[in-house]
C-alpha cells in the first residue's frame, strides 16, 4: 500500500482536532419551526387587514394581537394567536378574534394557504360586509370555524359543505348573512360531525328541518334571532348530548314542550319571544341538569308544575309574559341556587309563598302584573342579595315589611298599584342607599313618615308617589341631586310651590335632537342653567312652539332663522346670554308674539323701522 506523505499527514491530523474543537465550543442553531410559506401568508394577511385605528378597534377597545407579528421574527409559531403542530411546524390554530381586522375579504385571502388549519377564529372584526370567501372550503382539515360578529354578508358559500370534519361552526351576529343555498337542511346533512352550531342573528328565514335531530353529537344549538319559520321539531329536545338550546327571538315558529325523559342532559333552554304554546309538562322535573330556563314572551298557559322544585341546579328562571295561571308552587323554594326569578305579567293568583324567602341567592325577584293577594311576607327581608324587587300591579294588602331596610343592596323597588295600607315609612325605605328607582304610587297608605331633612340617596333617579295621600311636597326631594323622573300626581298637595322645587344646573350644549320635536313640543324652558354653544337649528318647517325661554345661560352665535316658522310663538326670552346678532326684524311676521326679551347679549346695529305696518302686531 502506498504510504501517505508525512507533511500531508500532519496537516490532516491538525485539521481534525480543530474541527471537533469548533463543534464543541460554538452553539448549535435550532431550525426554524415556522414554515416560510405560512409565515409569508400570515404577514400578507396582516398587511391587508390589520388596522389598529379601525372603528371596531376604537369602539370596543380591542387589543391588537397582530402588533406582535414582526417581519424580523422568523418563528411565526411564537406570534400571538398562532399555534403550530409541534412535530411538523405547520400552523394548526389561528385565533384572530378581536384583532382590529378591517376591510373586505375575498377568495384570494392568504389565510387560505394555511392548508393544515384545524381551528380558525376571526370573530369580532370588521370585514366590511364582504362575503365569506368560497375558498374557505379548501381548509378541509378545519374542526372549528368562528366568523361571528365580523360584518359578513350575502349567501353562505356552498363550499362550506366541503368542511366535513367540522365539529364547531359559529356564523352568528352577521345580520346580513343568509343561509338559503345551501339551506340548513343541506348544511347539517353534510356536516354530520357538528357538536356546536351557532347561527344567531343571521338570516335563516326557513323552518328548522327534522334532520337536525340526526346530529347525534350535537351539544349546543343556537338559533336565536334568525327569522325561523314553521314548526320546530320536538325530536330535537331529545338529542342524546344536547346541553344548550337557544331559539329565542323568533316570534313565528310554533311548537310545544315534549315529555322529557329522566337524565335528559339539557343545561340551558331559551325559548323567549317564540310562538311556543301549551302547558309546562310535569316531566319538566326530569331536567335535573337544567341551570337556565327562559320562556319569556311566549304563549305557554296552565299551571306551573310542582315538579319544577326538582330542578335544583337552576340559577335563572324567566317565565315573564305568558298566560300561566294558578298559584305559585311552594316547591320553588327548593331552588336555592336561583339568582334570577321572573314570573311577571302572567295570571298567577294566591299569596306569595313564604318558601320563596328560602332563595337567599336571589338578586332579582319580579312578580309584577299578576293577581297575587295577601301580604308581602315579612321574611322577604332575608333576601339580602336582592338588587331588584318588583311586586307591582297585584292585589297585595297590608303594610310594607318593617325591616325592608335590610335589603341594603336594592337599586329598584317597585310596589305601586297594589292595595298596601297603613303608614308609609319613607324614613325606613330611604335608608336603602343604593336605590335608583322607587315606585310606590297608587296604594292606600293612611299616613306618611318622612325621613330626616337632609336624607339624600346618591343614585335616586326615579321617584313615583302618585295617589299616595300627600298633602304637601316631601321636603326630602330637595336633597336628591340626581332625580330625573318624579310623579306626584293625584295627591292633595296645595299651596305655593317652594323655590327649591324649581332649581336645576344643567351644563353642556342644547341637544340638537330637541329640534326634531319642534312639530310637537309646545314649551321649551331651559332658563337659569349653564348651557353654552349655539341654539339648535330647527329641522322641520312646521313648528308648534308657543314658548321659548333659554335666558340666563351662556348661549352663543346668532339666532336661527328657522324660528320664523314658529307661527304660534307668543313668548321668547333669550336674555342674559352671549348671542351675537343684529335685531331680528325677520320675527316681525310672528302674529302671536307678545313678549320678546333680548337684553344682556351682544346685539348690534340699528333696530330700524318695520318694513310693513303689520310687523310685530301683538308685541
From TrEMBL:
<dbReference type="Pfam" id="PF08263">
    <property type="entry name" value="LRRNT_2"/>
</dbReference>
<keyword id="KW-0677">Repeat</keyword>
<dbReference type="InterPro" id="IPR013210">
    <property type="entry name" value="LRR_N_plant-typ"/>
</dbReference>
<keyword id="KW-0325">Glycoprotein</keyword>
<dbReference type="Pfam" id="PF23598">
    <property type="entry name" value="LRR_14"/>
</dbReference>
<dbReference type="InterPro" id="IPR055414">
    <property type="entry name" value="LRR_R13L4/SHOC2-like"/>
</dbReference>
<dbReference type="Pfam" id="PF12799">
    <property type="entry name" value="LRR_4"/>
</dbReference>
<keyword id="KW-0433">Leucine-rich repeat</keyword>
<keyword id="KW-0812">Transmembrane</keyword>
<dbReference type="InterPro" id="IPR025875">
    <property type="entry name" value="Leu-rich_rpt_4"/>
</dbReference>
<feature type="signal peptide">
    <location>
        <begin position="1"/>
        <end position="23"/>
    </location>
</feature>
<feature type="domain" description="Disease resistance R13L4/SHOC-2-like LRR">
    <location>
        <begin position="94"/>
        <end position="228"/>
    </location>
</feature>
<feature type="domain" description="Leucine-rich repeat-containing N-terminal plant-type">
    <location>
        <begin position="35"/>
        <end position="85"/>
    </location>
</feature>
<keyword id="KW-0732">Signal</keyword>
<protein>
    <submittedName>
        <fullName>Uncharacterized protein</fullName>
    </submittedName>
</protein>
<dbReference type="InterPro" id="IPR003591">
    <property type="entry name" value="Leu-rich_rpt_typical-subtyp"/>
</dbReference>
<keyword id="KW-0675">Receptor</keyword>
<dbReference type="InterPro" id="IPR032675">
    <property type="entry name" value="LRR_dom_sf"/>
</dbReference>
<dbReference type="InterPro" id="IPR046956">
    <property type="entry name" value="RLP23-like"/>
</dbReference>
<dbReference type="GO" id="GO:0016020">
    <property type="term" value="C:membrane"/>
</dbReference>
<keyword id="KW-0472">Membrane</keyword>
<feature type="domain" description="Disease resistance R13L4/SHOC-2-like LRR">
    <location>
        <begin position="330"/>
        <end position="538"/>
    </location>
</feature>
<keyword id="KW-1133">Transmembrane helix</keyword>
